[in-house]
Amino acid sequence: MPAPLHVLRFLGGALFFLLGCGITEAAPAPAPAPPRPPTLKISNSQLEPLTWADLDGWAKDDHAAAFKTFIGSCTAILQRAALAREIPPMSDALTQVCRRATAAPPAGNEQARNFFEKNFRPLRIATLGENAGFLTGYYEPIVDGSRTWSVDYQVPLYRRPSNLVASGRRRMESFPNKGEVGRRFGRRKILPYYDREEIENGILTGRQLEICWLKDPVEAMFIQIQGSARVRLADGSMLRVNYDAHNGYPYTAIGKFLIENGAIPRGEMSMDRIRQWMQANPEGGREIRGKNRSFVFFREVDLPANAEPKGAQGVSLTPGRSIAVDSALHVYGTPFFIEAELPIDSAEPNTKFRRLMVGQDTGSAIVGPARADLYFGAGDEAGKIAGRIRQPGRFAMLVPRELDPFEPGRQHVPLPPPKPAKLAEKEKAQEKATPVPLPRPRPKIGPQR
User: Fold this and answer.
1) Contacts of 438 (CB under 8 A, 6+ apart)
2) Tens-digit pLDDT profile for residues 168-205
3) DSSP letter assigned to residue 193
4) Is the pLDDT assigned to residue 14 strictly greater than 80?
5) What pairs with residue 39 in β-bridges?
6) Could you please report the per-residue DSSP string of 387-424?
7) Which domains, ranges and CATH numbers included, belong to the chain?
8) In whole angstroms, what is the distance from residue 401 CA to residue 388 CA?
9) What is the DSSP secondary structure assignment for residue 115, as one 8-state letter?
10) More exposed terminus of the chain, fewer Cβ within 10 Å: N or C?
């Protein structure tokens, strides 16, 4: 028999009471925490946060000139960002800064300074365990040459041979300035490429690889070291050449051999002194050059006669503002404020150098987080200055504010305290006793890595 209606109502009310008394309105979910900015990671380095006031000479620098160089890098950065599927954190942060720079470029020096201070934070950077970085200089030689061989012009500049291959290089990538390189022999066999001595002795003669001929093998060697040149032809036109490839052997500084055999006193070692000795001793110079087995091949580039060369980032270099950096650690376009005492005005390191520079180039000898090659321009005077630069320097890297310089929970690593005066004097004396290395070739112009 069905239950009476009042019983059903009672049971229903009881069930509602039993179930409903435990129901409360759910609290709103907490808002998700904002994403943490990407962290900056540079191997074998120590970073120390700075204020702008910590940078000696920052306020007196020509920030408008630095911004002009930086905006040149922005062109390449934005082009790369438009084509890339994935962008590393530092590249992405620089891309955002560059978008703001191109959208509203500063009108003057004060505005340029404000732009850098608003968009970047300065960090002192050095190799772990060291309190300073190291600086050298480079330039673009200007030499006389000829498109044809003659009694006066017998030293060739070679283009890259077709059988020269680099391990792991893809077809459309620029030729690396590091890594394994060899010559293709048959279908699959790769042999070591010819070294400098074999090439200077003519093993490539007859293969139609000559771009032009020069008068002096010493000039050819220095062009290989610098990585580019302006070759002045008989008709007055200027042939421009740039690094294209290397033969796979590591660069060896020849200055140490000239010191060891007593040809040049240790205290007089410089690129100019090496040039003078080799030109005065042709046979001995050939023997010394052969100790550096590395050899560089070039390609012609379409640049106006007086235009500055393009660095590895693919943008024109600016004398006194462009630097070559370690591209395995740093992103092209990164600004660095450099403090140093350099031998610019004279042979003594008495010139106070306090300047905002931009990383736009690289080289196989430029290794480490606080290592830079300063570009001084083209011609003999620039070459004399560049050849004297071999000094320590303090590096402050300008990091976009979109990045967090330090990993969560990690304290910054302060730079070591200054060394005692006696130890510093002893190390300075040892530095003077060390042969001057020559910078290595710069790589082919290519997109930012």
Assistant:
1) 225, 251, 253, 254, 255, 271, 274, 365
2) 665 545 676 666 788 888 777 889 999 999 999 999 99
3) P
4) no
5) 404
6) HH-EEEEEEEEEEETTSBSS-TTPPP-PPPPPPPHHHH
7) 45-137+309-432 (2.40.40.10), 141-300 (2.40.240.50)
8) 36
9) H
10) N
